[in-house]
């Protein structure tokens, strides 16, 4: 008790070949590029990785995850390892989009938000609306894979930073494991 289960399912069509998208995602060290709340992902073995996410007040939340099912070009399923700060599991699926429009990438993620201070920090890491975080991550993935970069407002006159920040002194200030039995039926088939 005291835990809240959050389930997110989001998908996006990306105009790139399945093999290219799968390879980028499978190298988990790439994921902080598309998910800004991730500080780092260290690959420990072929199946196991260590994740560090930013939390409020300069804190971090960490967990180890293990790939529990992988079908090259089709899916990657994972779950957090026992003893992790964050109990989470999920699957990312890759399928040919209809009409030769590229690849449909679908992310299914579940995590349990623990009670107490860690739960509050975790809720902030994943945002008030976790489905929006996943959607934003997929949008960044699409932008990086289709254009090679994520568009920003950096250097634009109406952006948040002064356009001539090299003049400005003020601009130099710094900026502010569970078993598959716990999962939904669709996700359980991937685990």
What does this 3D model show about the protein?
- This protein is of the alpha+beta class.
- The chain is built from 4 helices and 7 strands; from the N terminus they run βαββββββααα.
- It has helices at 18-26, 116-126, 130-147, 185-190, and strands spanning 4-14, 38-43, 48-54, 60-71, 75-80, 87-96, 103-113.
- Strands 1-7-6-5-4-3-2 form a 7-stranded antiparallel sheet, covered by helices on one side.
- A hairpin with a 4-residue loop joins strand 2 (38-43) and strand 3 (48-54).
- The protein is globular and about 45 Å long.
- It starts with a strand and ends with a helix.
- Mean pLDDT is 78; it is low at 159-183.
Number of strands: 7
Kindly report the spatial arrangement of strands forming the biggest sheet.
Answer: 1-7-6-5-4-3-2
Overall pLDDT score: 78
**Which parts are unreliable, with pLDDT below 50 for 5 consecutive residues or more?**
159-183
Q: What is the N-to-C order of secondary-structure elements (H for helix, E for strand)?
A: EHEEEEEEHHH
Q: Can you tell me the overall shape?
A: globular
What's the alpha carbon Rg, rounded to whole Å? 18 Å
Number of helical segments with 4 or more residues: 4
Ends: how far apart? 25 Å
Largest sheet features: 7 strands, antiparallel
What portion of residues belong to β-strands?
25-35%
Share in helix: 10-25%
Overall SS class: alpha+beta
């Amino acid at each position: 008790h005291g835990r809240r289960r959050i389930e997110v399912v989001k998908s996006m069509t990306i105009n790139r070949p399945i093999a290219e998208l799968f390879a980028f995602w499978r190298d988990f060290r790439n994921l902080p590029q598309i998910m800004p709340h991730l500080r780092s992902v260290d690959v420990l073995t072929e199946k196991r990785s260590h994740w560090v996410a930013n939390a409020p007040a300069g804190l971090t939340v960490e967990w180890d995850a293990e790939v529990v099912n992988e079908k090259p070009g089709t899916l990657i399923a994972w779950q957090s390892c026992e003893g992790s700060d964050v109990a989470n599991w999920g699957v990312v699926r890759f399928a040919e989009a209809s009409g030769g429009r590229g690849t449909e990438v679908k992310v299914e993620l579940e995590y349990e938000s623990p009670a107490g201070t860690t739960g509050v920090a975790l809720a902030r890491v994943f945002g008030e609306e976790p489905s929006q975080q996943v959607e934003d991550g997929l949008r960044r993935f699409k932008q990086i894979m289709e254009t090679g970069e994520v568009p920003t407002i950096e250097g634009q006159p109406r952006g948040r930073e002064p356009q001539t920040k090299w003049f400005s002194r003020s601009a130099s200030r710094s900026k502010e494991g569970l078993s598959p039995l716990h999962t939904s039926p669709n996700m359980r088939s991937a685990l």
